Amino acid sequence: MDQDTKCEGSDKPTPDEYQVVQEGKAEIMFPTSNGVFYNPVQEFNRDLTIAVISEFSKQKLNENGVEAFEFLADEDKSSDSKKIEIGKQYEEGITILEALSASGIRSMRFAKEVPGVKKIVANDFSSRAFDNIQKNIEHNKVEDMVTANLDDATTLMYQNRSKAKQFDVVDIDPYGSASVFLDSAVQAVKSGGLLCVTCTDMAVLAGNHPEACWSKYNSIPFKSKACHEQALRILLYTISSTAARYARYIVPLISVSVDYYVRVFVQVFNGQKKANLSASQQMNLWRCGSCSSFYSQPIATPLTKGKSETVVAPFAPFTSQKCQHCDNNVKIGGPFWGSALHSSDFIWGVLGAVKGAKSKYGSADRIIGILTMISEELLDVPFYYISDELSSILRCDAPSSNLIRSALMNSGYRVSAFHGKERSIKTDAPPEMIWDIMRKWVNVADNPTMQKRLAKLEPNAAARIIFAKPLSNEDIDLTLRRDCEPVSVKVGITRFPQLPPNWGPKAKATINRDGTMKLSASEKSRKFQGKRKAKLNKSQISEEKKPKSEEDVI
């Protein structure tokens, strides 16, 4: 069930018991009784999804010489292209499956805001959700485009894996992990189609429960500051390896880590050859548990033999189990997706469309901010450092991110940030360059305060060992550069907005024995707040009003 809505209660609500919420061009009816809620923060997720699917649909339409207009009156009369109107059914358009629909809010918006749509299936396994979806279809007058469906999501997708039944777009947005839906989802989408997947089990993907991460995603995570990118790379690895079983491969278009979840948009293609070679797009990570230095290692190396291509086992990055920077143990994690997280061309297409129609999206500023940061990321560099973490490891004052960025750029290396983490440093520089910059910045020989701090540390502390080693590059230049700041900072784009209170997901819904949804602890508290006290007061008043017996009078 989608995180943005939850329906509880055994009785079918009457029309008077509905609350109508407008989002985008759709009006959604939510039953007002028994714990129904609407999460406005999830509007960003829905807005971004609509922007991505719209761009995907427009590209397919343009390939066939078709242009989409908000209103036909806006069309360019000089163009010879075929014209279609957004919000109207297009028989040659795309088909969309929203596998976990809940209230149907996404499907209603797809019908009214995505260009070139032929059919949308809004599915949910809950009969109450199905009834609510049907009401919203009628309320929004999109019966010609949207069909409510009552079924298990995986069953429905397996039933539609034949070429004739596959969907152009499959949207999976569950509560928790999407892992159980991936096998059916990669088969239910057409070749060249779009697969949209959300996972909210960030504690698992971030390394707090490695055993659960292995059982769900077949990957062993690190517990590190780079957990946001790690979550994306674990999810993409799982989608890629799942697709490869069916001679399919993926191309990520946009991968986002935001709030309490990750969201990826990937194209899925048929191709046995590329599916076989996809092992070279996966990687393991060698990471020091003490100083956080890391090296990526592809699972396989591509090799060309005459006219054929294959993959072979790679060479290890080094043979020692000890970190060459701090002499502590190195751990191996993964597998992770090791190729690009995004498509630059697709990002710029979505970004331009959102900028050109800001009024269409309630969270337009946030979408523009995040997509702009994503467009600045180094696509071929996995994972990142955190400037604050570097200083914490070395027990020193923290240099500014701009100083580290400038020093890397002065030495000829590339550098960017990661959109999901403040003060992140993504660079193609080796770890020894990072530590050389920190040694140069701290300058222990002329820093009595640092000398006292280091003297108090254990002999095997990472800080003591790293500072004891000489600079491997004497030409470190800490001069600040004017171009060290990304464009998104210079132009004042909203990068990390302040979130409103109570913005996170509610507890997962559970079912009572009678089939009704169980109230959460907070909902119970609100429902029965003050009632026990009122009951006691009422009982006390009743006792006082009782007639007194003769013995009491005497």
Give me the secondary-structure category: alpha/beta
Uncertain runs are 3-14, 550-554
Q: Count of helices?
A: 20
Strand-residue proportion: 15-25%
The chain-level mean pLDDT equals 88
Shape designation: globular
Give me the side-by-side strand order of the main sheet. Answer: 9-8-7-10-11-13-12
Residue share in helix: 25-40%
Distance between the termini: 68 Å
Keywords:
single chain; globular; seven-stranded mixed β-sheet; 554 residues; disordered C terminus; alpha/beta; three-stranded antiparallel β-sheet; 20 helices
Could you characterize the architecture of this molecule?
- By secondary structure, this protein is of the alpha/beta class.
- 36% of the residues lie in helices and 23% in strands.
- It has 20 helices and 23 strands.
- The strands form 8 sheets. It has a 7-stranded mixed sheet, sandwiched between helices. Strands 15-14-18 form a 3-stranded antiparallel sheet. Strands 19-21-20 form a 3-stranded antiparallel sheet.
- It is globular, with a radius of gyration of 28 Å.
- Residues 3-14 and 550-554 have low confidence and may be disordered.
